[in-house]
Amino acid sequence: MGYLDNYIDKIRNEGKTGFADSIEKTAKQIGEKRLSQFDYASHQMGLLFGNIQSGKTGHVFGVMCEAVDLGFPFFMFLTTDSTTLQEQTYDRAKNDLTDFVVCNENEEQKFRNHGDKPVVVVVKKNYRVLKAWANRFRNTNMLLGNPLFIIDDEADAASLNTKVNQDKVSSINKYLQDIIDTAQSSIYLQMTGTPQSLLLQSSISGWHPLFVDYFEPGNAYLGGNFFFPKDKTPDFVRFIDGEPASNLARDVVIRHLVVTAQLFLTGHEVSNCLIHTSRLQSEHNRTAREISNVLDELSESSDDPKLKAEMKKEYDTLAPVKDPKQSFEDIYQLVQKILSKKEFNIVKLNGSSADTSEDYANGCNFIVGGTNLGRGVTFSQLHTFYYARTSKHPQADTMWQHNRMFGYDRDKGLISLFITHELYNLFSEINETNNAIVEQARKGEKITISYPDGLNPTRENVLDKSLLNILPGNSNHFPSNPHNNTFDEISKMVEKFDGTEAPQEVTLNLIIKILDKFEDDNFNFAGYKSMIQSEMHKASLATGMLMVRRNRNITYGMRSLLSPNDWAATNAFTDKFVLTLYQVNGDNPELNWPEGKKLWVPNIKLPGTSNIYMID
């Protein structure tokens, strides 16, 4: 049996058949499409992305095993700059990759003496650690003649050049490049649940992925489409706009206590509630005090009829699907016991707290924090989520990493999300764009990213501003000298338009087909078509507007194309792509068109609902 077969069998023997099938599919797909085609002479950058907390590590371990079966012996696994996370990943690799020699970041000799087994070293993205391994590879013949396979977990977190706009190189990025350069050839597999910053890297940077693969989560996964579906708001969402903080704290506490009792009565040992209201530690302290005050108040009056009525109201909303629903009396009695004996914990996770993951591994927990509740942190049996963190300049990837309620061990009938309308709508926008990115990746299309004004895709310091195009919503774009592949074919496609009609609603597919007929070396037709395709991935029957005008005397080199009346007509449509086709009398020598013949000139107006990001 091969390495992948052994790994998959191990997972199946643990009873995780669906997860094993998903990993096998991902590994075989990447093996066939990417690894088997590797030339052993180049350095290739690729991206494997999935959903937040959807099993990325398990999938990439499968890819590593498939790579060994295809002849790759040396691996480096990069984690974020956290000793705890590096040690967790090292321990997991030792447990799961039993056919590998697994080394920690200080085991150079073990890496050298791997014998006839594949070897992986697990290191954190700390510049001292990376510099040391770059020197080890450079000063020895460990990699001579062999490719190095690098897996960068959370590749968007610290690996990119944060000094790109200063014409400098940040230290982490420098030493990662040094490690790549020590090998004769390499595959560098970026891995993340938020690929925005990676997809917006320029091709000349060397950090834009040459290939992009997406892996599906398992059937039990609850993620963006569960929490933020497109056409409705789920019943478990509780909007908190205008709710006094003390009332809200009481609602959250009572909800979590009822869910905790249901879980404990069905054999579970942990129940977590996550409260993320701010990045400020002073706010964490204030929120923790509010939760503590409510718990103290309830503990002193656990037999209060008002509390019982509030609990009954919460109980009636429970609809567990993984375990039988327990009786209200049993749940009520257990909550009274939890309160009277104070069998609960308030855990603070931030830069100054001493609490750790062990503090919320068991029991009934109320976890309060901010930035530390993001990337790489997992919470078992998390069913109550209170999110109110706001930002003047929100970033889509950072916000999405805050969604720690995503995962496999959740019971969808116990979930509750306390959130404002504004934040819920922002998350819904991010989810919609994520789905469009996934569809573009599945189809192998050029990926474009769009967000509403005020929501940025990622942090600015990792994007090359000299090459990044941010196209504002409602803006107009047209080529200066479009070559018509055939004037007659374009004319035939719009022959029913006499040139006097108002903009007409048509399928976006027709607009793409029309744009296929144009070329211009100085106009990114492929990019604009990719934008429109991205919109179609959000809704396959999405429409745009088409307006045709004939017999136009437009001078070559004009700064604007549309007449005032046509500009006003197209501006009436703020939420759609609008394509205006002008039939220009290019055969009139006074108009100075280079080819001296009639031509069609397209004008593309972008929807006003989003800004669109493209990288040259």
TrEMBL record:
Keywords: ATP-binding, Helicase, Hydrolase, Nucleotide-binding. InterPro entries: P-loop_NTPase (IPR027417), Put_endonuclease_Z1-dom (IPR018310). Pfam families: Z1. The keyword Protease does not apply. GO terms for molecular function: helicase activity. Residues 268-444 form the Putative endonuclease Z1 domain. This is Helicase. It comes from Lactobacillus delbrueckii subsp. bulgaricus.
